[in-house]
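We modelled the chain as a single entity of 114 amino acids. Its sequence is:
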Amino acid sequence: GPRRLLAFKDLLVLLVFGCRVIQTVMRMAMGALVVYICEDYACTEASKGWLLSAHAFGYSTTQILGGILADHLGGKAVIAMAFSLAGLALASSPAAAAALGLGGVAAAQVVMGV
């Protein structure tokens, strides 16, 4: 048959890498965006810290759960669920902010950290 440039597993690794880069950029963007978010909402220093740490909270609190799920469902399913949740959280961030204010933004950041 025709020779492929990349094997399927190579392509999968590149796609996962690309998703992780995008997630890292989204996480890092909060540092710059918190200035603009706090222009729209009354932010204290504590709420700024809350917003900046929300992603890390979601990430650190779901590591064991993710491992347990991966043991039962497989790594591919868990990664697909995590990326899907992160995408949905990003897409719903404006609605969450409009409905819940800073709490909505922080909640979306927690879910993006999953």
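As a brief sanity check on the tokenised model: The chain has five helices and no strands. The two ends are 41 Å apart (CA to CA).
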